[in-house]
Automatic annotation (TrEMBL):
Domain Histidine kinase intervals: 575-789
Domain of life of the source: Bacteria
Coiled coil: 266-307
Residue span(s) of domain PAC: 89-141, 223-275, 392-445
Reaction(s) catalysed (UniProt annotation): ATP + protein L-histidine = ADP + protein N-phospho-L-histidine
InterPro entries recorded: HATPase_C_sf, HATPase_dom, His_kinase_dom, HisK_dim/P_dom, HisK_dim/P_sf, PAC, PAS, PAS-assoc_C
Organism of this sequence: Chryseobacterium gilvum
The protein's name: histidine kinase
Length: 792
């Protein structure tokens, strides 16, 4: 008993010690301490540490006192989970602080278990993490803002043609905009973090910029320079660049930002300007020299009569200066004294007004030759020029006095004060610009006529510039696209309103026109922008050069009616052909039956064979029409397989030998060649060409069939010695329903669909079909088929 009692006492003591140490530990921590009933319904104790509200007596409404309402669900779910699994509760959540404001805590509670493993109590701590959470939130917002800012800068820097970039202090690129990446022909990943040398700059160039970066680091000053180096696409270009220091908060240089502009074109202009001004300077010098010489010699004569001479010297100076200026050009020149209105002209000017050299010509006489319409205008300009500002550049028509010839003249004059200051000399040149004037008038008229014709034909016109894809459309064109005639219609709209079935093909066609210079010609459907109406249009366009710039220009006209007619017609043909097939099949079956019964009657048998042949022909025609309607509605189907074209030709040879007796058919020996194609359809093409050769060449003549190949294509040729085809017919021979209109053709039946079908079948196989023919000598139809890469 004593023993037991001793043991008990020491256990109790140890327990008290542990509890004291535990309490001391709790005292020492600043965290909130709490204990809860096993089901968390009751908070047994809560030491809020000034962060949360204390609970000294057990309480059941600890949730509303301590948990932030929005996080209640979150906390409850977690509690359920932990009770269920008897695991440590750990959660960051919002709480109501002592002062009722929102705070954040990291709460952690451990389940205390009895010997049976049942929870008897939860014991927990809650750490105040409000400051950290608020800081995280602020950081999040700041980051979102800075991301947005970055996107904004990205948009700005990527849409400028200028090159923008940033270097770190180790000469590495930390940023390069789109234009710069394009210039290098590199991606962001390939070039960022790299130095100039690694990004393809030549050593001298890299060294130069690195020295400049050193200079900026040292002086904190920006620098500006000009350099020439090659662009990945555009070749050698001249660039103007500025490097600017980027400072950190301490005012130290932390990076160098650069901007570079392509000034090649500006430089060229400057150079041209410089050359022109040099040339002008040269001319001026020459003129001055000549003037000096003249002045010297004129000075001699000046001694005779100063007064008289003064006037004359001026006149001659004026004339000579003009003569020099106009040099060999056939200009007429004049001089008018501003006070006396003395009018002196040379022979050429008189000639331009229809006067003889030895006749005198007054201002009034000259004005009289100007057509009535222009006369008052020229007289007024002249008067203004002499008495006022001297500005004179007029173009007018003149009827020659003696020769009655119409000339368009351009006169340019200049008013110059005399040394004496008493009067001015109004001098100038007149040139005959009849040819240019009429030519430009002619062009203007032609353009106007064209515009009227375009309007009258209901055509819409458009233009797209190659450089920036700026789209201009005529009012009519806009209406096709369902826009108002005076509304702005951007290029994207022109593409977007195209029916999805055609959109990609049209966009590709336009791009091909730009890149390969091909002509664009397409029929497609448009969905009206405002009215949503479906319209069929036909567009034709090509790339043209205008004032050195490339434009894709063209016309569009509406073909809705025609298209709908075509569709109706096709539907009709398809329906009729289909309906005709059924009775024909029964007729054929009856004929075969009768044939069998009439084996003995030779005559009737022959007649029946003929009837059968005719029915075969008719079936073929109907099938042709059905094929056409399938083609037009895009339903043609190719059953491709690998086969040997030479074997197919062999079959054709045997079939021809059995059925064609009117002509001599020669099949050249053919080597095996494997194609991937629709066997039946190719057979159809061959038999069509052979039957045509038979149809359109005289009886007894020879027809040659041959097949050759290169490493890409196999070529089958069917050559006859028949009527031949004229070039103007040959151009349309593969068109639907096209038949040659001539006397010997009229007697031969047909619908003009055979060759159309052949060409469509071959085109669907990505082959070509062509014709060489000479009238009276014969025709050679050749089609090609791509060879299969697999040769069996
Ligand atoms: P069809 O023979 O039924 O009229 P096709 O499309 O086969 O239709 O031929 C179109 C036209 O081309 C014919 O009407 C004929 O005038 C001409 N043609 C076709 N093949 C030849 C040929 N081998 N020689 C001369 N003319 C031909």
């Amino acid at each position: 008993m004593a023993n037991f009692s001793n043991k008990y006492t020491s256990e109790k003591q140890r327990f008290a010690e542990t509890e004291n140490r535990f309490k001391a530990l709790i005292e020492a921590t600043s965290d909130v301490i709490y204990s809860l009933s096993p089901d968390w319904q009751e908070m047994r104790e809560l030491d809020g540490r000034g962060f949360l509200k204390d609970a000294h007596a057990p309480t059941k409404n600890w949730r509303s006192a301590n948990i932030y309402p929005d996080d209640l669900d979150l906390v409850n779910t977690k509690i359920q989970e932990c009770i269920r699994e008897k695991k440590v509760f750990q959660l960051e959540h919002r709480v109501l602080r002592v002062d009722g404001t929102r705070g954040w805590t990291f709460s952690k509670a451990i389940p205390i278990l009895d010997e049976e493993g049942e929870i008897i109590e939860w014991f927990g701590t809650a750490q105040d993490i409000t400051l950290r959470k608020d800081a995280e939130e602020a950081l999040q917002i700041a980051k979102a803002q800075s991301d947005q800012q970055k996107r904004l800068y990205e948009t700005v820097t990527s849409s400028t043609p200028d090159l923008l970039y940033v270097f770190d202090l180790n000469y590495r690129f930390t940023y390069a905009n789109k234009a710069l990446l394009n210039m290098w022909g590199k991606t962001w990943e390939d070039s960022i973090g790299k130095r100039l040398l690694d990004n393809g700059y030549e050593p001298w160039h890299a060294e130069m910029h690195e020295k400049e970066i050193d200079y900026i680091k040292e002086t904190k000053l920006p620098i500006r320079g000009e350099v020439s180096f090659p662009h990945a696409v555009l070749g050698n270009r001249i660039y103007d660049y500025i490097f600017t220091p980027v400072f950190n908060e301490q005012g130290e240089v932390e990076a160098i930002a650069g901007a570079t502009r392509d000034v090649t074109d500006r430089k060229k202009w400057e150079e041209n300007l410089e050359n022109t001004s040099k040339t002008l300077q040269g001319l001026n010098e020459e003129l001055a020299n000549t003037n000096h010489e003249l002045e010297a010699s004129l000075g001699e004569i000046a001694k005779v009569n100063e007064e008289l001479l003064k006037a004359h010297v001026k006149i001659e100076e004026g004339q000579i200066a003009f003569r020099l200026a106009v040099n060999a050009a056939n200009f007429g020149t004049w001089y008018i004294h501003s006070i006396t209105r003395e009018f002196i002209t040379d022979a050429r000017l008189k000639e331009l007004f229809g006067y003889y050299e030895d006749e005198t010509l007054s201002i009034e006489q000259a004005l009289a030759q100007i057509t009535e319409e222009y006369r008052p205008y020229v007289a007024e300009k002249l008067e203004n020029a002499i008495s006022d500002n001297g500005d004179y550049d007029v173009t007018y028509p003149v009827i020659g006095f003696h020769d009655n010839r119409l000339r368009w003249l351009r006169a340019i004059g200049n008013l110059k004060a005399d040394h004496s200051g008493e009067f001015s000399a109004f001098t100038g040149v007149v040139m005959d610009i009849t040819d240019q004037y009429l030519a430009s008038a002619e062009i203007r008229r032609a353009e106007e006529n064209l515009r009227m014709a375009v309007d009258a034909a209901g055509l819409g016109t458009f233009q797209i510039s190659a450089q920036d894809r700026i789209f201009t459309a005529s009012p009519k064109l806009k209406t096709f696209f369902g826009f108002h005639p005076d509304e702005i219609m951007p290029y994207e709209a022109a593409i977007n309103q195209i029916h999805p079935d055609f959109r990609e093909a049209v966009a590709k066609g336009v791009e091909r026109a730009f890149s390969e210079g091909t002509r664009f010609e397409m029929e497609y459907q448009i969905i009206g922008y405002h009215d949503e109406k479906l319209r069929w249009v036909r567009a034709i366009g090509e790339v043209q050069l205008k004032e050195g710039k490339e434009y894709f220009t063209g016309v569009i006209h509406e073909i809705t009616e025609r298209k709908l007619d075509e569709i109706r017609k096709n539907d009709f043909i398809a329906m009729v052909s289909h309906e005709l097939k059924t009775p024909l099949t029964s007729v054929k079956t009856y004929i075969q039956l009768i044939h069998r019964k009439l084996k003995d009657d030779d005559n009737l048998s022959k007649m029946l064979s003929k009837t059968d042949q005719q029915i075969n022909k008719m079936t073929e025609m109907i099938n042709g029409f059905l094929d056409i309607s399938r083609l037009e509605s895009g339903k043609i189907h190719l059953n491709k397989e690998l086969f040997d074209l030479s074997l197919l030709l062999k079959d054709a040879e045997e079939e021809a030998a059995a059925t064609i007796h009117s002509h001599i058919l020669i099949f050249s020996p053919i080597e095996s060649v494997i194609v991937n194609a629709d066997k039946n359809k190719i057979e159809h093409v061959i038999s069509n060409l052979v039957n045509n050769a038979v149809k359109y060449s005289p009886k007894g003549s020879t027809i040659h069939v041959s097949c050759t190949s290169d490493h890409e294509f196999a070529y089958v040729s069917v050559k006859d010695n028949g009527h031949g085809i004229k070039p103007e017919d040959a151009r349309h021979i593969f068109d639907r329903y096209y038949r040659v209109d001539s006397d010997n053709m009229r007697s031969i039946s047909g619908f003009g669909i055979g060759l159309y079908l052949c060409s469509e079948i071959i085109n669907h196989h990505k082959g070509t079909i062509s014709l060489e023919s000479e009238v009276g000598k014969g025709s050679d139809f050749v089609f090609s088929l791509p060879i299969s890469p697999v040769q069996l």
